[in-house]
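User: Fold this; tokens only.

Assistant: Input:
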Amino acid sequence: MILSEGGNIFKDSNGQALTQRINQTDVKPTLAWLEQLTGLELQDNTLGSTGRKPTSGDLDVAVDANQVNKDQLVQRLTQWCTSHKLNPEDYIRKSGISVHFKTPINGNPNKGYVQTDFMFLKDVP
């Protein structure tokens, strides 16, 4: 698999992105929804330009690899997918130090999806 950064992991059979840019005003509510889903502290662990520009191509967040591992996070995300009758393979991908999740903006699929990159680091502040 080729890793494409910038919110382009999830594509349809024609190569069209299944995620979109997220407005700055939607970043915090979306991260709050993800915190409830995952049980992880995310709002204070954003990376790069996430939430700092008018729009972001994805949500980059640091995850403390000493607290949870990739497989544990994938299990939590998979439970959410299956409880909503969604195929986890359409929503979750792993690569390198990251887990990628096709995230409903503000937890609402009607608002579209943004790619969240959970980046597992050993020294998260």
